[in-house]
Every structure is written in structure tokens, then in C-alpha cells.
Q: What sequence folds into this?
């Protein structure tokens, strides 16, 4: 820490040592071990002492501006109501500044090493220790402080640490995918090849989609690819085995050609799903665009690699590896490398599901009723729960997420440009100026509760007295109301003066106002209890005497009047005066201890705090072109200086000043930090005019101004000559109650700036405003709105894909209803069970699973409506049986080979019943659906098991996005089998449809017949 701080910019070392922390003021180092003869002692605010300065004294010191530019708002939340109130949250900030722009990269690297090796481990240990439960049998006491931290470099490093942890879990998902695929494919070789293809598809997508850095959205693709991406290999293997089983005599080349034709149909939904993910490129949120592009590219790469690599692997498995395993390896190893599938009860499960589909009149109403209840519950919960705002990287209980939420309670202040006073002098209340705080001993109980002021006159030493005919009387008052004017004090002091000096000839009050001095801290030494009173200086009284008399040195007398409930107990140098000053109608101001507390002991102050107004900075920028454009996957858009901005122009100076001085109430401005206003006051104080005279040097005057006001340069961009090139003005405004109100406030500011630009000259007519609150509100609004648009576009794309694949509108309507039911149940778990709020990533996760799980349903629908064709399978099987007796000649074998186009059409239907002549009987709907369910059960159930296991692996993830993906994945895995294999067959059987021809084919033929007269 010290090495980085000392190696940084010397002018900014105060930001890291001692930093900006309330602890520096609460634990000051004492520079004087004893009270000096002048009645003072000094403190150094470095936070290294073991003796604590009373909290009220510390806060009073900060509130009175003695520590400028540090104020309580930099350390305490916005609802903090002053030194007499309580706060349970505190903010400390530290910053390391590079020595120069030329050394920024090396300094940043050094800082990053410091974060990873020292700072982050230390902060994490402190945070975990504060949260740890203390053993009841130990002497340790539980921590009263919860430590939350954020910062540059720290946040990125913490995400990388969590990502490294979660990627290790991805290895577990990879192993589970390998095992499940191994069992289903009955081949270790094919399972490894499938895993290699999945891995290479991700790597190829990373190469094709070149980005500067991968975000969490890209890593989300890895989990989805490993969890769901292997389903196509299961279906391709099933297709390969089915062709092999139904056509045992087919030549290898013909087998490949037939397989490729049917595999194209199998992979068509996958390719169309990839097109659906490309729809995410329309999103305005970069992570969603990145996710959609990576996901679609991975899927297309997987399709290509499946056809180019996995199909030859199937051939190698059949012709080389399988025979070798069967002949050369022992049975136990053979059972491991090529496990039999008969131990998996998928056929029985398929039969039971097919039977359940025949009871659709019971299944469908129960499903509809459950969906209605789930929809009502999910809608009610989602409507009543407030949005969580921008998606958090970590869980809500994580210190980073909690810290981000906690940071909204604080004023959005910037790092200071100049150091606060490091030392302070603490004096007795009657000492001279130059004190940052006044202090005196006091009793524990109230000693001056009556309405009146007890005054004391400083005792003069004989060797310091002088003969004076005219005396100036300086009066300090503690506990007096701030609303009491100087004229009232004149009346009271005249009465007191004539009592002290009866021979007064004239009394007058010098011009001036009641001036605040640093407050007075009353401390009861034995208990350490403290209380605070305002200390004020009354304008001096001028007293004339008929004859000279002995008075203080320089003919000045000092009075100290105590008007509050507390009185200093050590007034050894002062003598009490009588009578008391009675303040008729005296009413304590809000700055004092309230009357109800008049009989309380010290430090028993009010803990109630009136809520402050949440506020943020609105920044108005001159001289910089606002970045525009929507880069696909790029980072920060480029910016440039505004060549038309001329700050030396009088019209530019007027325009900047008007933006700050002419704000309207609807802009909700609470405070202004505009250097141009300070610059105007500075010029006028110098006897000059504003704007700078046309023939004067604006840049020269500005440099002189910045020398006196160092903090002003924090809002300026200067060129190599130190001349102003661009600038920003800061206005603190109240924050809207929600995102919509914040966006309305943004629109009001935009209209205001547009009007000011219209009135300004061309030299300052391109101002624009921005705010952190606007950015977050816009990000949340755009994320949700664009995600809804992408979701709607995905649904439309899914519908079009289904129409192309099944050619039947009725089937697609049924599929969409099933998908809607599945989404309702998923939303029920998300909102009601998991207690999540609706956000962009929740919508994306639902869309991802929706697009993946709907593909098997398309296959059932296609199998139901594809027109039946002629089959020669029975003929081939008969020929195969004859071949067992007399093998045919090659010519005969070729002559018996069926037409491949017919075979392909047969296999696309999954086979059907045949007559002795090879003609297909029209397959009943229930039999066709039973066949489709039985063929898909193995792949669907294996996919569901694989998804369930991989999702369970994601539950320990530290990153919120991956954890939620796992939680939703478990729900989808449980819903996948019934929604895919049960609901669509039940709906088709319950509808009583017997027509097997697709709607679009029937409509096309009817349209052809209607229009035939045009060409006949």
C-alpha cells in the first residue's frame, strides 16, 4: 500500500494515505501531550491513535466546514440529519493515482498485482471474519460491523476468481455429459468424439466471433452447450442404428447417403434454432448481443462438425472399433467401453407414456387447471415484487451486491482534488481565533436550565492592565439561538455593561453580524460523555467613560456568556457577572438540544433523523462530442473534442453560466458545483467584469483562478499548454422514486439543455447532460424492453421454423400451447418458489430452454403428418433371410437394391406396417404417435437426465447468472419429458384427428386446383 501510494502522483498521495475516511477524524493522533500555556492542544487526523475523539465532536467539526473539502456527506448516508442523529452506515474511499499518463500502464499492472496478492485477500478475510458466527463457548465477541467493499480492479479480479471457481464446475458438467452420452451411445469412442466436437464448436465460435474480451454471457454459452448441446449426437446415433437395424444388407456408401439425407432433417430444427438466437443481435444490450451471436455460432459449428466429424466416427465405430472390442478385449472391459442399452428402461417408459397419452381427457384438463393456477400465482407475485434493477453478478447476500445497493444511500461525490487540513488546534472557548474546535470540562447534569445567559468577565492581571477612556468589549456566547440578531444582543449587553461600569458615558455597537465560531464541546471527564453547543461571536461593543479606568491590555475586555443548559466547569480565568441576561421569548433553534432534553445527561441526544433526499450529480458537458453508434460487440464508443467550442468567447461564458443560474424547479436541483459561477465571483472580487473582456485573456485569467481554486480543474480538460479545451458542470439533483420517474427527469433535463443550446451562440451550442442515475435507469429499461422484443421475435421465429418443418398449422398451434404451459410452470418456480424478480437474464434463460426443448416436439408432429410412402423393408428382410441359404451374386444383390429415394422417404417416417407385397397400410394415429414416442423416449430421457445432472452441478456456482441457469435447468429437466412426450400426443388423440396430410400441403393442393383454370 505504502509503496504504491508513495510511487504515485505526489499531489494526490493524500487520497491513499491517509485516504478519505471518517476513521481518520475519529482516531486522531495527539501532537501535544499536555495543554499548552495558551490553553490549546493539537490533533493530527491520520487515524492512527488509540484514543477516540467523541463522535459528536468529530461530526460537528466536519459539518462546520473546518475540514473542507471533506464534509459528512462523503462519509455518511444521505439521510444523516446531523451530529445529534445516528447513522449505521459509513463509507471510506481510497485511490491510487499514477505519477503521470506516460506511466499509467505500468502503474496499473503494479496495482493489479497488489490487488490480487495483498489487497483482495485481506479485504475478503476481514469481510468473512465480520460475518462469521462466534463460538458461544469462546471469549470472542461478535463483530458489530459488516464490511462491504468495491473498487477498480477489485471488482474485475473478484469476478475472475468466481469465474475460475465456476469453470471448474463446468468440468464436472463436462464429465457428466461424457458419462451420460457414453451410456446412451453404447460407445466410449463416440462419447469422446461428441465431447471433442462440443469443445471445438466453442473454440471455433470464439475464433469466428472475435471480441476484445469475453464477458459472462460468453461463458454462459459454455454451460448451455455442454448441458444441452449433446442432444443432437444422441439423435444422430439413434438414426444410424435404426437404418442399420431396418436395412441390414445396405452397402456402406448407400448407408451414408441415406443417413445424410435423413440427418439433414434431424438437424434442420437445430439449424433453425441457431437462426433464432441470431435474433438477439437486435437487442440494445451488449451482453445479450454477445450471448446470441456466440450461441448461434456454436450451434452452427456443431452442426457442421457433426456432419463432417461425427458421421465418419460412426462409420469407424461400426467397421473398426466395435469389432476390435468384441474380439480382442475381455468381457468386463467390453462392458465398460460398449455398455448394453438394455439395462436402461426407456422402452418401458415409452410404453407407459404412450398409454398415458391415451388418457388425455384426464391429463389435459388437470394440466390446464394447474397452468391457470400457476399463471395467476406467478403474475400476482411478479406484479407485487419490485424490480431488482440491473442484474447483479453475485447473489444478493454477497458483499459486492449488498455494497452496490448500499452505495445508493450515499451521495455520489467525486474524489477530492486537494487535501483536507491535516492538523487542527483545539482551544478553550475564550481563546483567540485559529481554533478548529473549542473544548471545556462540564458537569454531567444540567446546571443552567433557566431561560437566561450567565456571563463571565475575563480576569485581568495587574501587569497587563491599561488606563483606557474607551474600551472595546468582545463577547462570545454559547448555546444562544442563531435567530437572535445583533441588535437584540446590543440591548442586553448595554444593561450588563452599565452594571459593570456605572460611570459609562456612551455605549455603541460596531457594525457587523453575529458570527459563528467553531462549536464548543462539553466533556464530562469521568464518564467521557459529551455534548455540543454552538459558539457565536457578537459584534463588539464600544464603551466610553468620563474618566480613564483600568481595563485589559489594548483596552479590550472579553466576556463569555453561556446561554445553554451546559456550563464549563473550569472558568478559572473568568469571574461571574450579575445579573443574568434574560432572553425574553427565547426559543431554542433546531441546532440546539431540544427542550425535552433539558433534564437529560450529556450525550443523551436525539437519535431521530429526518430523512434526507437521495441525490445524484447531473453533469453538463461542453466541448466534447457525445459518443454515438451501437457497436456490435465493441467496448466504449470513441469520443472526440467539439471543434466548435470556444471557451474564450464571451457568449460561451454566458451560456455556461446561464445553465447553472437559470435552472427551473422541475429540474429538482438541490445544489450546484459550477466553477463558472465561482469564476464570475472571483473576477468581480478582482475588480474585473464577467465575461472576461473581449480584449482580455480568458485563458490567462482562468489559470490564475485555478491557482486559487485547485478543485475547479477536476471538471476541465486542458491541452498541452494548460488552456481549457472542454469542461463539465455538476448539479446535484434529487433522484426519482423509480426508473420511470428518473427517465422523466432525464427528459426534462434534455429539454432544458436543448433550449439553452438554442439560445446560445455557435461557440457553445452543443452542450449535453448525463447522469449515473440516468444510465442505470436507461440500462434497465432498455435491457427489459429489448429482451421482450427479442423474446417476441424468438417466438415468431420458432413458429415459422415449426411451419417449415411440420407444414401443419394445427400441429404448431398445439406445440405453442404446450410451450406456453411449460413457460408458465417455469415462471411459477422462478417467481413464487425461488422468489426472483423479472429481469432480462431471466427472460433469456427461459427463452434458451424453450428453444431447446421444443425441438423434440417438432419431430413428433412431423412424424404424425408426413405423407406415407412405399416401403421395401419387408422385401429386403425376405432377401436377407434367403441370403442365409444361398448368398446372392453381386449382380443379383445390386438388382435387389431398392431405390434410395424411396428408402429415404420410408426412413423419414420411422418405418410403418407393411403388407406382403410391400405396400404400406395407412397407419392409425395412435399407432403412429406410439411409434414416435417410443423412438424419442431414449433421447429425450437421456437429455433430461443429462440436463438435470449438469444443472445440479451449477448450483454451487458463485456467479448469480450460472446459479440461476442451474436452478431453471432443474425445473426444465423435470418438465421436459411430460411436455415433449405426453402432452402433444394426448392433444392429438383427444382432438380425434385422423387426417395425416399436413395443412399447408392440403391448402397448397386446394389452391392449385382452384387456380388450375389459369393454365388449362
A:
Amino acid at each position: 500500500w505504502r509503496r504504491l501510494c508513495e510511487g504515485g502522483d505526489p499531489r494526490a498521495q493524500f487520497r491513499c494515505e491517509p485516504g478519505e475516511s471518517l476513521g481518520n477524524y475519529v482516531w486522531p493522533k495527539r501532537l501535544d501531550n499536555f495543554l499548552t500555556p495558551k490553553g490549546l492542544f493539537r490533533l493530527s487526523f491520520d487515524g492512527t491513535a488509540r484514543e477516540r475523539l467523541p463522535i459528536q465532536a468529530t461530526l460537528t467539526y466536519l459539518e462546520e466546514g473546518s475540514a473542507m473539502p471533506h464534509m459528512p456527506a462523503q462519509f455518511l448516508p444521505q439521510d444523516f440529519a446531523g451530529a445529534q442523529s445516528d447513522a449505521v452506515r459509513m463509507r471510506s474511499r481510497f485511490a491510487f493515482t499514477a505519477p503521470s499518463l506516460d506511466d499509467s500502464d505500468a502503474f496499473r499492472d503494479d496495482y493489479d498485482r497488489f490487488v490480487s496478492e495483498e489487497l483482495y485477500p485481506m479485504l475478503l478475510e476481514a469481510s468473512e471474519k465480520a460475518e462469521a458466527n462466534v463460538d458461544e463457548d469462546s471469549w470472542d465477541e461478535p463483530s458489530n460491523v459488516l464490511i462491504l467493499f468495491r473498487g477498480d480492479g477489485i471488482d474485475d479480479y473478484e469476478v475472475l476468481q468466481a469465474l475460475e471457481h465456476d469453470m471448474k464446475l463446468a468440468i464436472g458438467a463436462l464429465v457428466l455429459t461424457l458419462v451420460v452420452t457414453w451410456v446412451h451411445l453404447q460407445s466410449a469412442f463416440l462419447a469422446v468424439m461428441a465431447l471433442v466436437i462440443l469443445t471445438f464448436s466453442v473454440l471455433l465460435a470464439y475464433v469466428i466471433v472475435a471480441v476484445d474480451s469475453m464477458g459472462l454471457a460468453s461463458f454462459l454459452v459454455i454451460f448451455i452447450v455442454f448441458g444441452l448441446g449433446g442432444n443432437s449426437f444422441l439423435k444422430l446415433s439413434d438414426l444410424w442404428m435404426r437404418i442399420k437395424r431396418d436395412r441390414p444388407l445396405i452397402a456402406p456408401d448407400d448407408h451414408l447417403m441415406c443417413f445424410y439425407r435423413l440427418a439433414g432433417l434431424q438437424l434442420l430444427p437445430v439449424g433453425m434454432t441457431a437462426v433464432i438466437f441470431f435474433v438477439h443481435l437486435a437487442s440494445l444490450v451488449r451482453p445479450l448481443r454477445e450471448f446470441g451471436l456466440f450461441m448461434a455460432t456454436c450451434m452452427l459449428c456443431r452442426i457442421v462438425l457433426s456432419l463432417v466429424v461425427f458421421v465418419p466416427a460412426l462409420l469407424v465405430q461400426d467397421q473398426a472399433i466395435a469389432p476390435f472390442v468384441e474380439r480382442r478385449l475381455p468381457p468386463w472391459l467390453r462392458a465398460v467401453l460398449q455398455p448394453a442399452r438394455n439395462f436402461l428402461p426407456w422402452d418401458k417408459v415409452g410404453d407407459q407414456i404412450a398409454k398415458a397419452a391415451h388418457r388425455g381427457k384426464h391429463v389435459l384438463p388437470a394440466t390446464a387447471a394447474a397452468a391457470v393456477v400457476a399463471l395467476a400465482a406467478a403474475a400476482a407475485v411478479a406484479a407485487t415484487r419490485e424490480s431488482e434493477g440491473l442484474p447483479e453478478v453475485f447473489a444478493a447476500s454477497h458483499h459486492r451486491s449488498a455494497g452496490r445497493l448500499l452505495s445508493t444511500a450515499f451521495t455520489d461525490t467525486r474524489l477530492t482534488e486537494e487535501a483536507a487540513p491535516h492538523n487542527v488546534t483545539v482551544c478553550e472557548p475564550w481563546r483567540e481565533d485559529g481554533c478548529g474546535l473549542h473544548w471545556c470540562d462540564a458537569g454531567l447534569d444540567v446546571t443552567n436550565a433557566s431561560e437566561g445567559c450567565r456571563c463571565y468577565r475575563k480576569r485581568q492581571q495587574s501587569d497587563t492592565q491599561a488606563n483606557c477612556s474607551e474600551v472595546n468589549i468582545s463577547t462570545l456566547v454559547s448555546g444562544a439561538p442563531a435567530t437572535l440578531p445583533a441588535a437584540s444582543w446590543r440591548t442586553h449587553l448595554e444593561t450588563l455593561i452599565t452594571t459593570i461600569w456605572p460611570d459609562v458615558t456612551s455605549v455603541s455597537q460596531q457594525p457587523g453580524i453575529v458570527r459563528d465560531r467553531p462549536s464548543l464541546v462539553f466533556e464530562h471527564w469521568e464518564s467521557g460523555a459529551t455534548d455540543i453547543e454552538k459558539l457565536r461571536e457578537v459584534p463588539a461593543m464600544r464603551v466610553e467613560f468620563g474618566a480613564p479606568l483600568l481595563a485589559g491590555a489594548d483596552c479590550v475586555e472579553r466576556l463569555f456568556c453561556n446561554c445553554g443548559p451546559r456550563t464549563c466547569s473550569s472558568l478559572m480565568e473568568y469571574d461571574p457577572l450579575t445579573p443574568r441576561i434574560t432572553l425574553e421569548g427565547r426559543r431554542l433553534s433546531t441546532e440546539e438540544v431540544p427542550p425535552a432534553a433539558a433534564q437529560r445527561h450529556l450525550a443523551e441526544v436525539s437519535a431521530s433523523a429526518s430523512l434526507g433526499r437521495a441525490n445524484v450529480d447531473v453533469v453538463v458537458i461542453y466541448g466534447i462530442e457525445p459518443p454515438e453508434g451501437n457497436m456490435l460487440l465493441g467496448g466504449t464508443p470513441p469520443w472526440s473534442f467539439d471543434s466548435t467550442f470556444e471557451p474564450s468567447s464571451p457568449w460561451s461564458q454566458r451560456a455556461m453560466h446561464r445553465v447553472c443560474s437559470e435552472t427551473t424547479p422541475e429540474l429538482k436541483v438541490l445544489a450546484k458545483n459550477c466553477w463558472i459561477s465561482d469564476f464570475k465571483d472571483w473576477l468581480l472580487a478582482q475588480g474585473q467584469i464577467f465575461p472576461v473582456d473581449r480584449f482580455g485573456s480568458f485563458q490567462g485569467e482562468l489559470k490564475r483562478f485555478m491557482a486559487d481554486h485547485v478543485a475547479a480543474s477536476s471538471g476541465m480538460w486542458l491541452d498541452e499548454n494548460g488552456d481549457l479545451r472542454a469542461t463539465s458542470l455538476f448539479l446535484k439533483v434529487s433522484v426519482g422514486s423509480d426508473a420511470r420517474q428518473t427517465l422523466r427527469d432525464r427528459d426534462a433535463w434534455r429539454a432544458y439543455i436543448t433550449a439553452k443550446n438554442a439560445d446560445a451562440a455557435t461557440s457553445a451550442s452543443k452542450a449535453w447532460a448525463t447522469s449515473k442515475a440516468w444510465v442505470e435507469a436507461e440500462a434497465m429499461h432498455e435491457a427489459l424492453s429489448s429482451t421482450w422484443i427479442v423474446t417476441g421475435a424468438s417466438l415468431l421465429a420458432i413458429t415459422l421454423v415449426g411451419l417449415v418443418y411440420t407444414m401443419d398449422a394445427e400441429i404448431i398451434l398445439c406445440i405453442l400451447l404446450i410451450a406456453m404451459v411449460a413457460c408458465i410452470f417455469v415462471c411459477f418456480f422462478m417467481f413464487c418458489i425461488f422468489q426472483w424478480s423479472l429481469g432480462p437474464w431471466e427472460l433469456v434463460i427461459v427463452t434458451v430452454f424453450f428453444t431447446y426443448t421444443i425441438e423434440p416436439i417438432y419431430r413428433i408432429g412431423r412424424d404424425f403428418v408426413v405423407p406415407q410412402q412405399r416401403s421395401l423393408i419387408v422385401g429386403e428382410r425376405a432377401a436377407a433371410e434367403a441370403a442365409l441359404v444361398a448368398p446372392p451374386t453381386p449382380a443379383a444383390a445390386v438388382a435387389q437394391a431398392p431405390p434410395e429415394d424411396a428408402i429415404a422417404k420410408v426412413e423419414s417416417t420411422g418405418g410403418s406396417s407393411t403388407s406382403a407385397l410391400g405396400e404400406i397400410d395407412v397407419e392409425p394415429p395412435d399407432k403412429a404417435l406410439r411409434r414416435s414416442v417410443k423412438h424419442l423416449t431414449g433421447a429425450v430421457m437421456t437429455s433430461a437426465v443429462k440436463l438435470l445432472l449438469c444443472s445440479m452441478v451449477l448450483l454451487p456456482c458463485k456467479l448469480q447468472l450460472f446459479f440461476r441457469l442451474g436452478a431453471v435447468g432443474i425445473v426444465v429437466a423435470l418438465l421436459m419429458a411430460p411436455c415433449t412426450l405426453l402432452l402433444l400426443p394426448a392433444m392429438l388423440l383427444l382432438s380425434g384427428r385422423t387426417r395425416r396430410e399436413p395443412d399447408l400441403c392440403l391448402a397448397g393442393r386446394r389452391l392449385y386446383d382452384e387456380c388450375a383454370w389459369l393454365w388449362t
Summary: The longest strand covers residues 530-551.
